[in-house]
Each structure stands twice: as structure tokens, then as C-alpha cells.
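Now for a specimen:

…
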Amino acid sequence: MRPQDGVPLPAAALFPYIPTVTGPDPLLVFDRALLRQRRERAARDWERHDFLKREIADRLVDRLADVRRTFPLALDLGSHGDEVATTLGGRPIVGQLVRADLGRGFARRARGPAVVADEEFLPFAAARFDLVLSAMDLHWVNDLPGTLIQIARILKPDGLFLGAMLGGATLWQLRQALAAAESEIDGGLSPRVSPFADLRDAAGLLQRAGFALPVADSETIEVEYESALALMRDLSRMGEGNLVVGRRRTVTRRAVLLRAAELYGERFTGPSGRVSASFEVLFLHGWAPHASQPKALKPGSAARRLADALGTSEFSAGEKVERS
């Protein structure tokens, strides 16, 4: 952590919990070591490629504006170039914001307290934060349910988690073009675009992690590029390239990339003459449980009958009703 603005936080208050890695994860999907390397490289020239993170951070903070309360201590998980802090500006809704990022280069860019931290092994004390925000970061986590459980653990009772991560429909055009080109030229397929979570699973994951009042929804951001090759270059410079452990380790043949770009242009060029790329963003919203939160009534505990509220008659199950 390197505080630059505001009151420095004592290290003991944030880091008494040190997780232990007991062995390799048999369900490993993403190459996290490669992700860290790419984050460091992306941090060097981030301002030229931060447009997607800025857009997602803006949409995430807009949702926070609907919450009628303040949060004295918040965590920005996956801070990148401090886009969440920039969007928050001087809003009084958040007191002190701690940034955390897997890349040291990004942590160094922070304009406030910052730590280098792995999202899969969060080094924070239990019940530490009033709010955890995460924009465009959690889609690279191997054990998403486990990370959500850790986020719930570091929230105070009635603390809020707001996350925005790339979803399963992201870059479907690129998947289609690469698959067709590789099948045509190499006669087979390999993982080319990383798999992400689906919206239908998101709310269930929040509930499994112990969040109360879980909500998940999605938005699609359409971005236009000069060509598919320009899209692929931008993904690389953002550090958002393919990280699947089972990816092909040899360099992709130039013929495959050129054919994929050709197919992409044929299928997905818009009226502007540029190609379109879709980024599905899943928004996750959940609260750490607290006794003050609303709860569903037990069956049979209603004070009034539904029939009375509707101004109609009530009939028992199986009773015949004659129509006049």
C-alpha cells in the first residue's frame, strides 16, 4: 500500500488475514501468471487503451448513485488506471477508497492508498469494508464463487458489493470469425477467446457466496473498429488477450489471422464501414447479510387475504366455479 492522499491506513488493519495456497487448482482455466505479466505491460501505455474500462466504471458508479447511504471505507478491486476513483470524483457517498490491482504498475498509478493483491487470495481483514467495487476485473478469476465468498467476508454487515465483469456473449463476432478461419485453414479448432460467466448463473453465484438481496443484469457495449486486426491489437494492449490454459502455445499462423479478419469484415461491417465488436457486461449487486434487511414473509403469515385486496371471492382448491 502506498497512501498519497487522505489519511494513511495502518497495515495491520488491512492485512491480518494471509491465505495459504495448499496446492494446484485442478479446475484451473486462466493463466494468472500470464495475466500479471500482461497487466504490467498494459500499465505502461494505459491511457491510449482505457476507453472500455472508463465506460464500464462510469456505468458502475452510476448504479451506486441510486443507493441512499454513504460508505466510509471502500475497496476498488482491479483498479487499473484509477477509473473508478476518477468517476467518483468528489462525491461524498464514498469516504476513503483503497485500490487493489494484480499489477504493480497499475497500483503505482493510484492517486490514493493502493495495494498489489491477487483477486483469488484477498489479503484483507474480515468485516473491513463498507463497500467493494470491481469494474472489468473478475472475468479473469478461476474460482469466481470462491472470490465472491472472500468479498462477502471482507464486507461489514450490511456492506455492499457492486461488480461489473465481462460476460459470456463478449466478442462473439471474433469467436465466430476465428473458429471459421482456423477450421478452414488448419482443419481444427483451439480455444482462441476466453470463456466468461453467463448472466443466468450470476445471481445464483452471489446467493451461493452468502450475499443477501442478490441482483444481476447485463448491458452490451458496442465498439467500432477500423478492422478485426485493429480490434485484436487493442485487446492485446489492454491485457485482455486469450488466457485459457489450454490455448495453443505456438504463434497463430498469419494466414489464419488474415482469413479471420477477412471473414469478420464480410460478416460484421456496419453502415459506417467499420466492424462492430460486442462486450457484454454483467452487473452484480449484493449485500452482506444484516438483521435490518427486508425478509420474505413466512407462508400463511399475511395479515390480509389476497381475495379481499382484489375485491373478489376466494375458492378452495378443487372447488368448481360456475361462470354466469
Q: What stands out?
A: The longest helix spans residues 172-186. The longest strand covers residues 212-225. DSSP finds eleven helices and seven strands in the chain.
